């Protein structure tokens, strides 16, 4: 077939302009809704322009025209095949509140990755604790900060309130923001390190566990077990699980990347990763507030038993939230989600 | 020539999308440099916004500076992470920097990106920014055939260049009045028949990018292309070649390929 390019352009140009105008009209509408007539017209113009592009692509020496038609087809393709969320959907409060139930549901669905994160952290804790217990020389390596090496000095400072500024509430507020942002960044890094196929996530969790185990044993050895529990538990009840959930998200991401070839539509599965991040960020906001406003107050202002009780109560509530809130997965749903994942 | 095309690599990276109707279209991918410029501009905007907010907070919380620090720290953090995610999610894949540099984030299937994808690719910046100045992202972009940083790989997105939707008519080969190649109609016909669309586009692209190329690179590229055409496609007489520069040779060849009335086999 012989193509007279000039004639071809002259004949088809009105149709391309028609498609351009229709696309411009649609793109200017916030909701990008199509009337039935417009939808039909768009479909028809798209098909015809796509056919024109095919004619120009095969054998023609008209790169500029080809580029123009490609751009036009790409825009029409995006309008036809992409369904945008409507404004009403986006701004529905119920949609946003759903995150409070969707998070524990996602947590339970991916609980095997949480178990892996717990296992690695426990291994780190055990190694850190055993090292400090049986090899005093390891203290300098594992606990480089002075306040971690010398519990008695730190306990004395804390109980006397020597680290306090004149206006404690003001300082606590600034401190809480620092804690929240720092902890979320660390947790996000643990979750993002899933792209290293989980190796980076595992190392981060292990290091975290190592430090935790070493501190716990060091303080307990020197008779400050109740102090350190009362000091760490009120915020640690949320902070440590959230780091574990970050590890869970990291391993989940690694799992998605490893089976990317099978799961062609990884973009849908990644929503689960996002839910875990959103949930742990909420938890870390609470942990930061507790650490700044509550954990730093010691006996006699706040009795240690009271602080430990608060910490335990938080832990119980968190466990109930993560284990029970949201929809229960029935057997059928579980098998459906498993088969969906393996598709 | 048709089967083996030595050196005919695309001059710009592209994504080829196949629609369900079997139509193929290409989208030009954004290279690291414009992406870096757009990011620097966005960073400047965020910093300016945060600093402006800082002044406001300073006055509002004059009597409670601790709460002021708390507000500004949290706001800085939230703006830093959500600026890109919200703008890309709600503004069809563009931030202010990307819009000014004609870039757009899209789904790797050629469709607009979804809000979740915008969040994922922006949250993954904590990894892409490692160890400093987005080094990990740079390595990832350069090693990816579709120029994805790790955030894009995870979110299933990529950054494309927005090309203008106009047919350009003021090409250099359309402006010259006399084309010395037209004195040799038999060789011209051979050139038209033997030159593939890819080869023609490559020559056209090389001429269009004249001012983007360093003088030495331009001379070398033009020399190689002209030599290739002369030896493999259509041999014009030596007395003509001797008086033409490599660039003029390519301009004449492109004039022959693109401007004269032509009939093509489809």
Query: Assembly state here?
Result: heterodimer
Main pleated-sheet profile of chain B:
2 strands, antiparallel
Q: Please report the distance between the alpha carbons of the first and last residues of chain B.
A: 19 Å
Strand count of chain A: 1
* Straight-line distance between termini of chain A: 44 Å
* Mean pLDDT value of chain B: 82
Order of secondary-structure elements of chain A: EHHHHHHHHHHHHHHHH
Strand order in space, largest sheet of chain B: 1-2
Which stretches of chain A of 5+ consecutive residues score pLDDT under 50? 334-343
| Mean pLDDT figure of chain A | 83
Q: Largest interface here, residues on each chain?
A: A-B, 65 and 57 residues
Number of strands of chain B: 5
Relative helix content of chain A:
over 70%
Which term fits the overall shape of chain B? elongated
Order of helices and strands of chain B: EEHHHEHHHHEHHHHHHE
Radius of gyration of chain A: 29 Å
Shape of chain A: elongated
Number of helices of chain A: 16
- Radius of gyration of CA atoms of chain B, rounded to a whole number: 25 Å
Q: How much of the residues of chain B is beta strand, in percent?
A: 5-15%
